Amino acid sequence: MKEFPKDFLWGGATAACQCEGAWNEGGKGLTLGDMKPYRPFLKRTDLHEQRTVSMEMLREAHAEKGTGLYPKRYGIDFYHRYKEDIKLFAELGLKSFRMSISWPRIFPRGIEEVPNEEGLKFYDDVFSELEKYGIEPMVTMNHYDTPLYLIEHKDGWKTPEILIYWERYVRTILKRYKGRVKYWLPFNEINATIFIPYMGAGLFPDVEKENFKQSCYQCVHYQLVANAIAKKCAKEIDPNAQIGCMIARFTTYPATCKPEDVMQTVLDENYENYYYTDTLLLGKIPAYMDRFYEENNLNIKISDEDRKILSENTSDWVAYSYYMSLVTSANTDELEKTNSNLIIAGKNPYLEASEWGWQKDPIGLRYSLNQMWDRYHKPIFILENGLGAVDKLEADHSIHDPYRIDYLKSHIQQMLEAVKDGVDVKGYYIWGIIDLISSGTHEMSKRYGVIYVDQDDYGKGTLARYKKDSFAWYQKCIASNGMDL
Ligand code: BGP
Q1: Would residue 37 count as lying in a domain?
Q2: Of all protein residues, whose CA lies closest to atom 14 belonging to ligand 1?
Q3: Which one of 45, 320, 439, 443 would you pick to mutate in the ligand 1 pocket, going by the greatest count of ligand atoms within 8 A of its CB?
Q4: Which CATH number covers residue 267?
Q5: Which residues does the entry assign to the active site, renumbered to this chain (predicted)?
Q6: Does the predicted TM-score (pTM) go above 0.80?
Q7: Range of the domain at 372
Q8: What is the pLDDT of residues 306-318, one digit of tens each?
Q9: Would you state the pLDDT for residue 59?
Q10: What is the ipTM metric for this complex?
Q11: Which regions in the chain score pLDDT beneath 70?
Q12: Is the CB of 321 under 6 A from ligand 1?
Protein backbone atom coordinates (compact mmCIF):
# COMPACT_ATOMS: atom_id res chain seq x y z
CA MET A 1 0.00 0.00 0.00
CA LYS A 2 1.30 3.41 -0.92
CA GLU A 3 1.86 6.18 1.57
CA PHE A 4 2.58 9.86 1.11
CA PRO A 5 5.99 10.27 -0.51
CA LYS A 6 8.87 10.99 1.90
CA ASP A 7 9.39 14.46 0.45
CA PHE A 8 5.69 15.38 0.54
CA LEU A 9 5.26 19.10 1.09
CA TRP A 10 2.98 19.62 4.08
CA GLY A 11 2.22 23.26 3.80
CA GLY A 12 0.32 26.31 4.87
CA ALA A 13 -0.89 29.06 2.54
CA THR A 14 -1.34 32.82 2.75
CA ALA A 15 -1.52 35.81 0.41
CA ALA A 16 0.20 39.19 0.74
CA CYS A 17 -2.96 41.28 0.44
CA GLN A 18 -4.69 39.28 3.16
CA CYS A 19 -1.92 39.09 5.72
CA GLU A 20 0.91 41.61 5.23
CA GLY A 21 -0.87 44.81 6.14
CA ALA A 22 1.56 47.77 5.90
CA TRP A 23 -0.32 48.77 2.74
CA ASN A 24 1.34 52.18 2.69
CA GLU A 25 4.78 51.28 4.05
CA GLY A 26 8.05 50.42 2.37
CA GLY A 27 7.19 52.33 -0.80
CA LYS A 28 4.26 50.07 -1.64
CA GLY A 29 1.61 51.24 -4.09
CA LEU A 30 -2.09 50.49 -3.87
CA THR A 31 -3.36 47.27 -5.27
CA LEU A 32 -6.67 45.66 -6.08
CA GLY A 33 -6.11 43.51 -3.02
CA ASP A 34 -6.03 46.55 -0.72
CA MET A 35 -9.44 47.67 -1.78
CA LYS A 36 -12.45 46.68 0.11
CA PRO A 37 -15.12 48.04 -2.12
CA TYR A 38 -18.28 46.58 -0.81
CA ARG A 39 -18.38 46.29 2.92
CA PRO A 40 -20.71 47.25 4.56
CA PHE A 41 -22.63 46.75 1.34
CA LEU A 42 -22.07 43.04 1.21
CA LYS A 43 -23.77 40.59 3.49
CA ARG A 44 -22.23 37.20 4.03
CA THR A 45 -24.34 35.33 1.55
CA ASP A 46 -25.60 37.96 -0.79
CA LEU A 47 -23.95 37.08 -4.03
CA HIS A 48 -25.98 39.47 -6.10
CA GLU A 49 -24.55 42.47 -4.29
CA GLN A 50 -21.05 41.17 -4.67
CA ARG A 51 -21.42 40.64 -8.39
CA THR A 52 -22.80 44.10 -8.93
CA VAL A 53 -20.34 45.94 -6.74
CA SER A 54 -19.80 49.19 -8.53
CA MET A 55 -16.81 51.26 -9.50
CA GLU A 56 -18.40 54.04 -7.44
CA MET A 57 -18.02 51.90 -4.34
CA LEU A 58 -14.39 51.23 -5.19
CA ARG A 59 -13.74 54.93 -5.57
CA GLU A 60 -15.40 55.69 -2.26
CA ALA A 61 -13.20 53.12 -0.58
CA HIS A 62 -10.20 54.50 -2.42
CA ALA A 63 -10.97 58.08 -1.42
CA GLU A 64 -10.78 57.29 2.26
CA LYS A 65 -7.13 56.41 1.91
CA GLY A 66 -5.48 56.92 5.27
CA THR A 67 -8.65 57.24 7.31
CA GLY A 68 -11.43 54.94 8.40
CA LEU A 69 -9.65 51.94 6.97
CA TYR A 70 -11.19 48.54 6.97
CA PRO A 71 -9.10 45.68 8.30
CA LYS A 72 -8.25 44.22 4.95
CA ARG A 73 -5.55 46.81 4.48
CA TYR A 74 -4.12 45.97 7.86
CA GLY A 75 -3.98 42.28 7.18
CA ILE A 76 -2.60 40.62 10.30
CA ASP A 77 0.60 42.66 10.26
CA PHE A 78 2.69 39.83 8.82
CA TYR A 79 4.91 42.57 7.38
CA HIS A 80 6.23 43.33 10.86
CA ARG A 81 5.66 39.99 12.54
CA TYR A 82 6.91 37.54 9.91
CA LYS A 83 9.73 36.33 12.16
CA GLU A 84 7.36 35.40 14.96
CA ASP A 85 4.96 33.77 12.49
CA ILE A 86 7.61 31.77 10.67
CA LYS A 87 8.94 30.56 14.00
CA LEU A 88 5.47 29.20 14.75
CA PHE A 89 5.35 27.56 11.30
CA ALA A 90 8.68 25.89 12.11
CA GLU A 91 7.32 24.65 15.41
CA LEU A 92 4.35 23.26 13.54
CA GLY A 93 6.78 21.37 11.32
CA LEU A 94 5.67 23.00 8.05
CA LYS A 95 7.69 21.73 5.11
CA SER A 96 6.51 24.50 2.84
CA PHE A 97 5.01 27.94 3.17
CA ARG A 98 2.89 29.41 0.40
CA MET A 99 3.02 33.19 0.29
CA SER A 100 2.66 35.79 -2.40
CA ILE A 101 4.82 38.68 -3.47
CA SER A 102 2.85 41.87 -3.66
CA TRP A 103 3.47 43.25 -7.17
CA PRO A 104 3.00 46.91 -6.05
CA ARG A 105 5.60 46.44 -3.31
CA ILE A 106 8.09 45.87 -6.12
CA PHE A 107 6.60 48.19 -8.75
CA PRO A 108 4.25 50.56 -6.88
CA ARG A 109 2.29 51.64 -9.95
CA GLY A 110 3.31 48.72 -12.10
CA ILE A 111 4.89 50.96 -14.74
CA GLU A 112 8.19 51.99 -13.14
CA GLU A 113 11.39 50.92 -14.83
CA VAL A 114 13.32 50.50 -11.63
CA PRO A 115 12.02 48.25 -8.87
CA ASN A 116 11.51 49.39 -5.30
CA GLU A 117 14.51 48.05 -3.39
CA GLU A 118 12.73 48.19 -0.05
CA GLY A 119 10.06 45.84 -1.34
CA LEU A 120 12.62 43.41 -2.77
CA LYS A 121 14.54 43.48 0.49
CA PHE A 122 11.44 42.59 2.52
CA TYR A 123 11.00 39.32 0.62
CA ASP A 124 14.76 38.62 0.88
CA ASP A 125 14.31 38.80 4.64
CA VAL A 126 11.26 36.55 4.58
CA PHE A 127 13.11 33.95 2.47
CA SER A 128 16.10 34.10 4.83
CA GLU A 129 13.83 33.39 7.75
CA LEU A 130 12.27 30.41 5.93
CA GLU A 131 15.75 29.12 5.03
CA LYS A 132 16.75 29.31 8.66
CA TYR A 133 14.14 26.63 9.42
CA GLY A 134 14.42 24.68 6.17
CA ILE A 135 10.92 25.65 5.02
CA GLU A 136 10.45 25.54 1.24
CA PRO A 137 8.78 28.66 -0.18
CA MET A 138 5.93 28.29 -2.67
CA VAL A 139 5.51 31.74 -4.15
CA THR A 140 2.50 33.23 -5.91
CA MET A 141 3.40 36.14 -8.18
CA ASN A 142 -0.08 37.62 -8.31
CA HIS A 143 -2.67 36.78 -5.68
CA TYR A 144 -5.50 39.23 -6.50
CA ASP A 145 -2.80 41.88 -6.38
CA THR A 146 -2.58 43.83 -9.63
CA PRO A 147 -1.39 47.42 -9.02
CA LEU A 148 -4.42 49.70 -8.91
CA TYR A 149 -2.71 52.20 -11.18
CA LEU A 150 -2.65 49.69 -14.02
CA ILE A 151 -6.37 49.10 -13.59
CA GLU A 152 -7.30 52.77 -13.41
CA HIS A 153 -4.92 54.23 -15.96
CA LYS A 154 -3.81 51.46 -18.27
CA ASP A 155 -6.95 49.44 -18.95
CA GLY A 156 -5.75 46.69 -16.64
CA TRP A 157 -5.78 43.24 -18.21
CA LYS A 158 -7.94 44.31 -21.14
CA THR A 159 -5.06 45.06 -23.49
CA PRO A 160 -1.68 43.40 -24.09
CA GLU A 161 0.16 46.48 -22.81
CA ILE A 162 0.04 45.04 -19.30
CA LEU A 163 2.15 42.10 -20.46
CA ILE A 164 5.14 44.45 -20.78
CA TYR A 165 4.85 45.51 -17.13
CA TRP A 166 4.10 41.97 -16.04
CA GLU A 167 7.19 40.60 -17.76
CA ARG A 168 9.36 43.27 -16.15
CA TYR A 169 8.00 42.35 -12.73
CA VAL A 170 8.40 38.62 -13.32
CA ARG A 171 11.98 38.97 -14.59
CA THR A 172 12.87 41.14 -11.62
CA ILE A 173 11.69 38.66 -9.00
CA LEU A 174 12.98 35.58 -10.82
CA LYS A 175 16.44 37.14 -11.03
CA ARG A 176 16.47 38.46 -7.50
CA TYR A 177 15.31 35.24 -5.83
CA LYS A 178 17.05 32.80 -8.16
CA GLY A 179 18.21 29.77 -6.22
CA ARG A 180 16.05 30.69 -3.25
CA VAL A 181 12.63 29.93 -4.71
CA LYS A 182 12.00 26.79 -6.72
CA TYR A 183 8.18 26.74 -6.89
CA TRP A 184 6.56 29.71 -8.57
CA LEU A 185 2.87 30.18 -9.24
CA PRO A 186 2.15 33.09 -11.61
CA PHE A 187 -1.56 33.50 -10.73
CA ASN A 188 -3.67 32.48 -7.84
CA GLU A 189 -6.91 30.85 -9.05
CA ILE A 190 -6.69 32.19 -12.58
CA ASN A 191 -10.39 31.39 -13.18
CA ALA A 192 -11.29 33.93 -10.47
CA THR A 193 -11.30 36.62 -13.15
CA ILE A 194 -14.52 35.04 -14.38
CA PHE A 195 -16.25 34.28 -11.09
CA ILE A 196 -15.04 37.32 -9.10
CA PRO A 197 -14.00 39.74 -11.87
CA TYR A 198 -13.25 42.73 -9.66
CA MET A 199 -10.78 40.75 -7.59
CA GLY A 200 -9.12 38.97 -10.50
CA ALA A 201 -8.95 41.91 -12.88
CA GLY A 202 -10.64 44.98 -11.39
CA LEU A 203 -13.69 44.62 -13.64
CA PHE A 204 -17.04 46.08 -12.67
CA PRO A 205 -20.37 45.55 -14.43
CA ASP A 206 -21.37 49.21 -14.07
CA VAL A 207 -18.24 50.28 -15.90
CA GLU A 208 -18.10 47.59 -18.56
CA LYS A 209 -21.86 47.54 -19.12
CA GLU A 210 -22.79 45.32 -22.08
CA ASN A 211 -19.10 44.50 -22.61
CA PHE A 212 -18.76 42.96 -19.18
CA LYS A 213 -18.49 39.34 -20.28
CA GLN A 214 -16.30 40.24 -23.23
CA SER A 215 -13.91 42.12 -20.93
CA CYS A 216 -13.77 39.27 -18.44
CA TYR A 217 -12.78 36.75 -21.10
CA GLN A 218 -10.33 39.13 -22.77
CA CYS A 219 -8.64 39.77 -19.43
CA VAL A 220 -8.41 36.12 -18.56
CA HIS A 221 -6.90 35.43 -21.96
CA TYR A 222 -4.07 37.86 -21.28
CA GLN A 223 -3.61 36.37 -17.83
CA LEU A 224 -3.21 32.94 -19.39
CA VAL A 225 -0.60 34.39 -21.75
CA ALA A 226 1.04 36.05 -18.74
CA ASN A 227 1.20 32.69 -16.96
CA ALA A 228 3.06 31.29 -20.00
CA ILE A 229 5.33 34.36 -20.13
CA ALA A 230 6.41 33.57 -16.56
CA LYS A 231 7.43 30.10 -17.74
CA LYS A 232 9.32 31.60 -20.69
CA CYS A 233 11.23 33.95 -18.37
CA ALA A 234 12.00 31.18 -15.89
CA LYS A 235 13.54 29.02 -18.64
CA GLU A 236 15.93 31.86 -19.43
CA ILE A 237 16.66 33.08 -15.92
CA ASP A 238 16.48 30.10 -13.60
CA PRO A 239 16.07 26.71 -15.25
CA ASN A 240 15.67 25.08 -11.82
CA ALA A 241 12.53 27.06 -11.17
CA GLN A 242 9.28 25.18 -11.66
CA ILE A 243 6.32 27.15 -12.86
CA GLY A 244 2.80 26.03 -12.14
CA CYS A 245 -0.76 27.02 -12.87
CA MET A 246 -3.76 27.05 -10.58
CA ILE A 247 -7.52 27.21 -10.58
CA ALA A 248 -10.19 27.28 -7.93
CA ARG A 249 -11.51 23.80 -8.59
CA PHE A 250 -15.25 23.61 -8.83
CA THR A 251 -15.76 19.87 -8.88
CA THR A 252 -19.21 19.45 -10.34
CA TYR A 253 -21.71 16.59 -10.18
CA PRO A 254 -24.86 16.11 -12.26
CA ALA A 255 -28.06 16.63 -10.26
CA THR A 256 -29.47 13.41 -11.73
CA CYS A 257 -28.32 10.64 -14.07
CA LYS A 258 -30.44 12.18 -16.84
CA PRO A 259 -28.09 12.33 -19.87
CA GLU A 260 -28.83 16.05 -20.28
CA ASP A 261 -27.61 16.71 -16.74
CA VAL A 262 -24.52 14.59 -17.22
CA MET A 263 -23.70 16.45 -20.43
CA GLN A 264 -24.22 19.79 -18.70
CA THR A 265 -21.67 18.70 -16.10
CA VAL A 266 -19.07 18.17 -18.82
CA LEU A 267 -19.75 21.63 -20.19
CA ASP A 268 -19.61 23.32 -16.79
CA GLU A 269 -16.37 21.53 -15.97
CA ASN A 270 -14.89 22.63 -19.28
CA TYR A 271 -15.84 26.28 -18.97
CA GLU A 272 -15.27 26.71 -15.24
CA ASN A 273 -12.21 24.54 -14.73
CA TYR A 274 -10.54 22.92 -17.70
CA TYR A 275 -10.38 25.88 -20.07
CA TYR A 276 -7.56 27.29 -17.94
CA THR A 277 -5.64 24.12 -17.19
CA ASP A 278 -6.06 22.73 -20.72
CA THR A 279 -4.64 25.96 -22.13
CA LEU A 280 -1.70 26.09 -19.73
CA LEU A 281 -0.80 22.41 -19.57
CA LEU A 282 -1.64 21.28 -23.08
CA GLY A 283 -0.46 24.55 -24.65
CA LYS A 284 -3.52 25.19 -26.75
CA ILE A 285 -6.78 27.04 -26.21
CA PRO A 286 -9.27 24.17 -26.30
CA ALA A 287 -11.64 23.86 -29.26
CA TYR A 288 -14.72 23.95 -27.02
CA MET A 289 -13.89 27.60 -26.35
CA ASP A 290 -14.48 28.48 -30.02
CA ARG A 291 -18.04 27.30 -29.65
CA PHE A 292 -18.37 29.09 -26.30
CA TYR A 293 -17.15 32.40 -27.73
CA GLU A 294 -19.47 32.07 -30.71
CA GLU A 295 -22.54 31.18 -28.68
CA ASN A 296 -21.86 34.04 -26.28
CA ASN A 297 -21.09 36.57 -29.01
CA LEU A 298 -17.62 37.12 -27.66
CA ASN A 299 -14.92 38.42 -29.89
CA ILE A 300 -11.69 37.70 -28.03
CA LYS A 301 -8.49 39.06 -29.50
CA ILE A 302 -6.01 36.20 -29.66
CA SER A 303 -2.87 36.78 -31.71
CA ASP A 304 -0.62 34.18 -33.34
CA GLU A 305 2.08 35.35 -30.98
CA ASP A 306 -0.19 34.61 -27.99
CA ARG A 307 -0.80 31.10 -29.32
CA LYS A 308 2.91 30.58 -29.83
CA ILE A 309 3.79 31.67 -26.29
CA LEU A 310 1.12 29.36 -24.89
CA SER A 311 2.24 26.37 -26.92
CA GLU A 312 5.95 26.80 -26.15
CA ASN A 313 5.63 27.44 -22.44
CA THR A 314 3.39 24.91 -20.78
CA SER A 315 3.38 24.74 -16.99
CA ASP A 316 5.44 22.21 -15.06
CA TRP A 317 2.76 21.34 -12.55
CA VAL A 318 -0.89 21.91 -11.87
CA ALA A 319 -2.56 23.09 -8.70
CA TYR A 320 -5.94 23.96 -7.37
CA SER A 321 -7.73 25.17 -4.32
CA TYR A 322 -10.33 22.75 -3.09
CA TYR A 323 -13.03 23.69 -0.63
CA MET A 324 -16.31 22.27 -1.89
CA SER A 325 -18.17 20.60 -4.73
CA LEU A 326 -21.14 21.78 -6.77
CA VAL A 327 -24.16 20.30 -8.50
CA THR A 328 -25.43 21.27 -11.92
CA SER A 329 -28.33 20.46 -14.19
CA ALA A 330 -29.42 21.11 -17.77
CA ASN A 331 -32.26 23.10 -16.27
CA THR A 332 -30.76 25.25 -13.56
CA ASP A 333 -34.16 26.70 -12.62
CA GLU A 334 -35.06 23.30 -11.24
CA LEU A 335 -32.04 23.20 -8.96
CA GLU A 336 -32.31 23.94 -5.30
CA LYS A 337 -29.51 26.46 -4.69
CA THR A 338 -26.80 26.89 -2.13
CA ASN A 339 -25.60 30.45 -1.95
CA SER A 340 -22.00 30.89 -0.91
CA ASN A 341 -20.16 34.18 -0.90
CA LEU A 342 -18.41 33.08 -4.07
CA ILE A 343 -20.92 31.36 -6.30
CA ILE A 344 -24.49 30.18 -6.47
CA ALA A 345 -24.53 26.45 -7.02
CA GLY A 346 -26.87 23.51 -6.91
CA LYS A 347 -27.43 22.03 -3.49
CA ASN A 348 -26.23 18.51 -2.84
CA PRO A 349 -28.60 16.80 -0.40
CA TYR A 350 -25.85 14.38 0.63
CA LEU A 351 -23.45 17.06 1.82
CA GLU A 352 -23.33 19.47 4.70
CA ALA A 353 -22.31 23.04 4.09
CA SER A 354 -20.09 25.34 6.13
CA GLU A 355 -21.57 28.40 7.77
CA TRP A 356 -20.84 30.23 4.55
CA GLY A 357 -22.67 27.73 2.35
CA TRP A 358 -19.57 25.92 1.07
CA GLN A 359 -20.55 22.24 0.64
CA LYS A 360 -17.99 20.06 2.36
CA ASP A 361 -17.02 17.07 0.24
CA PRO A 362 -13.83 15.16 1.09
CA ILE A 363 -14.53 12.43 -1.48
CA GLY A 364 -14.76 15.17 -4.09
CA LEU A 365 -11.08 15.81 -3.39
CA ARG A 366 -10.12 12.24 -4.27
CA TYR A 367 -12.43 12.41 -7.27
CA SER A 368 -10.95 15.67 -8.57
CA LEU A 369 -7.37 14.50 -7.96
CA ASN A 370 -8.06 11.46 -10.11
CA GLN A 371 -9.66 13.63 -12.80
CA MET A 372 -6.74 16.05 -12.92
CA TRP A 373 -4.17 13.26 -12.96
CA ASP A 374 -5.95 11.31 -15.71
CA ARG A 375 -6.21 14.43 -17.84
CA TYR A 376 -2.68 15.82 -17.53
CA HIS A 377 -0.31 13.37 -15.87
CA LYS A 378 1.53 16.27 -14.31
CA PRO A 379 2.45 16.66 -10.61
CA ILE A 380 -0.40 18.10 -8.57
CA PHE A 381 -0.42 20.46 -5.62
CA ILE A 382 -3.44 21.16 -3.44
CA LEU A 383 -2.52 24.76 -2.76
CA GLU A 384 -5.54 25.56 -0.61
CA ASN A 385 -7.90 23.50 1.50
CA GLY A 386 -9.50 24.42 4.77
CA LEU A 387 -12.58 25.37 6.70
CA GLY A 388 -13.67 28.94 7.30
CA ALA A 389 -15.38 29.03 10.68
CA VAL A 390 -16.09 31.31 13.63
CA ASP A 391 -13.72 30.36 16.46
CA LYS A 392 -13.99 31.17 20.13
CA LEU A 393 -10.99 32.40 22.08
CA GLU A 394 -11.33 31.07 25.64
CA ALA A 395 -10.20 32.98 28.71
CA ASP A 396 -7.04 30.86 28.92
CA HIS A 397 -6.27 31.63 25.26
CA SER A 398 -7.11 28.14 24.08
CA ILE A 399 -9.25 27.64 20.98
CA HIS A 400 -11.14 24.39 20.58
CA ASP A 401 -11.80 23.72 16.91
CA PRO A 402 -12.75 20.05 16.49
CA TYR A 403 -14.84 20.99 13.41
CA ARG A 404 -11.67 22.15 11.64
CA ILE A 405 -9.76 19.03 12.61
CA ASP A 406 -12.64 16.88 11.26
CA TYR A 407 -12.65 18.79 7.99
CA LEU A 408 -8.87 18.62 7.47
CA LYS A 409 -8.63 15.02 8.57
CA SER A 410 -11.35 13.79 6.22
CA HIS A 411 -9.76 15.63 3.28
CA ILE A 412 -6.26 14.33 4.03
CA GLN A 413 -7.67 10.79 4.29
CA GLN A 414 -9.21 11.13 0.84
CA MET A 415 -6.01 12.64 -0.53
CA LEU A 416 -4.21 9.53 0.71
CA GLU A 417 -6.76 7.41 -1.15
CA ALA A 418 -5.86 9.35 -4.29
CA VAL A 419 -2.16 8.70 -3.66
CA LYS A 420 -3.03 5.01 -3.42
CA ASP A 421 -4.94 5.37 -6.70
CA GLY A 422 -1.61 6.38 -8.21
CA VAL A 423 -2.08 10.16 -8.36
CA ASP A 424 1.18 12.12 -8.11
CA VAL A 425 0.27 14.60 -5.35
CA LYS A 426 3.31 16.65 -4.33
CA GLY A 427 1.98 18.85 -1.59
CA TYR A 428 -0.99 19.97 0.46
CA TYR A 429 -1.44 23.45 1.89
CA ILE A 430 -3.94 24.44 4.54
CA TRP A 431 -5.42 27.75 3.46
CA GLY A 432 -4.96 30.51 5.92
CA ILE A 433 -2.59 28.47 8.06
CA ILE A 434 -2.69 31.51 10.29
CA ASP A 435 -5.97 33.47 10.56
CA LEU A 436 -6.07 36.26 8.02
CA ILE A 437 -8.57 38.50 6.28
CA SER A 438 -11.05 36.61 4.12
CA SER A 439 -10.75 37.49 0.47
CA GLY A 440 -14.41 36.92 -0.31
CA THR A 441 -16.07 38.56 2.66
CA HIS A 442 -13.20 40.77 3.87
CA GLU A 443 -13.99 39.67 7.38
CA MET A 444 -11.55 38.55 10.02
CA SER A 445 -14.16 36.35 11.66
CA LYS A 446 -14.12 33.82 8.83
CA ARG A 447 -11.10 32.02 10.21
CA TYR A 448 -9.13 29.18 8.63
CA GLY A 449 -5.94 29.05 10.67
CA VAL A 450 -4.45 26.54 13.04
CA ILE A 451 -2.98 29.71 14.58
CA TYR A 452 -5.45 32.24 15.96
CA VAL A 453 -4.90 35.96 15.50
CA ASP A 454 -6.53 38.28 18.02
CA GLN A 455 -8.25 40.81 15.77
CA ASP A 456 -11.90 41.45 15.03
CA ASP A 457 -13.77 42.46 11.87
CA TYR A 458 -13.02 46.11 12.55
CA GLY A 459 -9.28 45.75 12.97
CA LYS A 460 -9.41 45.82 16.77
CA GLY A 461 -7.39 43.43 18.89
CA THR A 462 -3.90 42.78 20.20
CA LEU A 463 -2.84 40.80 17.11
CA ALA A 464 -1.40 38.21 19.51
CA ARG A 465 -1.03 34.72 18.03
CA TYR A 466 -2.45 31.68 19.85
CA LYS A 467 -2.34 28.01 18.95
CA LYS A 468 -5.67 26.35 18.28
CA ASP A 469 -6.26 22.65 19.04
CA SER A 470 -5.80 22.06 15.31
CA PHE A 471 -2.18 23.25 15.65
CA ALA A 472 -1.13 20.19 17.69
CA TRP A 473 -3.21 18.00 15.40
CA TYR A 474 -1.50 19.23 12.20
CA GLN A 475 1.87 19.03 13.91
CA LYS A 476 1.23 15.34 14.58
CA CYS A 477 -0.05 14.82 11.05
CA ILE A 478 3.11 16.33 9.56
CA ALA A 479 5.45 14.48 11.95
CA SER A 480 3.87 11.17 10.93
CA ASN A 481 3.84 12.12 7.22
CA GLY A 482 0.07 12.05 7.17
CA MET A 483 -0.39 8.68 8.83
CA ASP A 484 -1.38 9.76 12.34
CA LEU A 485 -4.59 11.65 11.84
C1 BGP B 1 -9.49 31.42 -2.33
C2 BGP B 1 -8.46 32.48 -2.35
C3 BGP B 1 -7.91 32.86 -1.04
C4 BGP B 1 -8.80 32.65 0.14
C5 BGP B 1 -9.71 31.46 0.05
C6 BGP B 1 -10.83 31.43 1.04
O7 BGP B 1 -10.42 31.66 -3.33
O8 BGP B 1 -7.37 32.14 -3.15
O9 BGP B 1 -7.37 34.14 -1.19
O10 BGP B 1 -9.23 33.75 0.76
O11 BGP B 1 -10.28 31.31 -1.21
O12 BGP B 1 -11.84 32.31 0.63
P13 BGP B 1 -12.54 33.30 1.62
O14 BGP B 1 -11.46 34.13 2.19
O15 BGP B 1 -13.48 34.08 0.79
O16 BGP B 1 -13.21 32.45 2.61
Answers
A1: yes
A2: 438
A3: 439
A4: 3.20.20.80
A5: 384
A6: yes
A7: 9-479
A8: 999 999 999 999 9
A9: 56
A10: 0.98
A11: 1, 36-73, 339-344
A12: yes
Is residue 439 in contact with ligand 1, taking CB distance under 6 Å? yes
Q: Is residue 242 a part of any domain in this protein?
A: yes
Ligand 1: centre distance to CA 439 (Å): 5
Distance 440 CA to ligand 1 centre (A): 6
Q: What is the pLDDT of residue 362?
A: 98
Tell whether 485 is covered by a domain.
Answer: no
SS (H, E, C) the chain: CCCCCCCCEEEEECCHHHHCCCCCCCCCCCEHHHCCCCCCCCCCCCHHHHHCCCHHHHHHHHHCCCCCCCHHHHCCCHHHHHHHHHHHHHHHCCCEEEEECCHHHHCCCCCCCCCCHHHHHHHHHHHHHHHHCCCEEEEEEECCCCEHHHHHHCCHHHCCHHHHHHHHHHHHHHHHCCCCCCEEEEECCCCHHHHCHHHHHCCCHHHHHHHHHHHHHHHHHHHHHHHHHHHHHHHHHCCCCEEEEEEECCEEEECCCCHHHHHHHHHHHHHHHHHHHHHHHHCCCCCHHHHHHHHCCCCCCCCHHHHHHHHHCCCCEEEEECCCEEEECCCHHHCCEEECCCCEEECCCCCCECCCCCECCHHHHHHHHHHHHHHHCCCEEEEEECCCECCCCCCCCCCCCHHHHHHHHHHHHHHHHHHHHCCCEEEEEEECCECCCCCCCCCCCCECCCEEECCCCCCCCCCCEEECHHHHHHHHHHHCCCCCC
Residue of 276, 320, 382, 384 best suited for mutating to test ligand 1, as the one with most atoms within 8 Å of CB: 384
Nearest CA to ligand 1 atom 15: 440
Cα 188 to middle of ligand 1, angstroms? 10
In a domain, 456, yes or no: yes
In this structure, the residue with its CA closest to atom 9 of ligand 1 is 439
CB of 15 within 6 A of ligand 1: the answer is yes
Q: Number of folded domains in the chain?
A: 1
pLDDT at 40: 36
Active-site option among 20, 272, 384, 443: 384
Q: Quick check: is 384 catalytic?
A: yes
pLDDT tens per residue, range 387-405: 999 999 999 999 999 999 9
Reported as a single tens digit per residue, the pLDDT across 98-138 is: 999 999 999 999 999 999 999 999 999 999 999 999 999 99
pLDDT value of position 457: 84
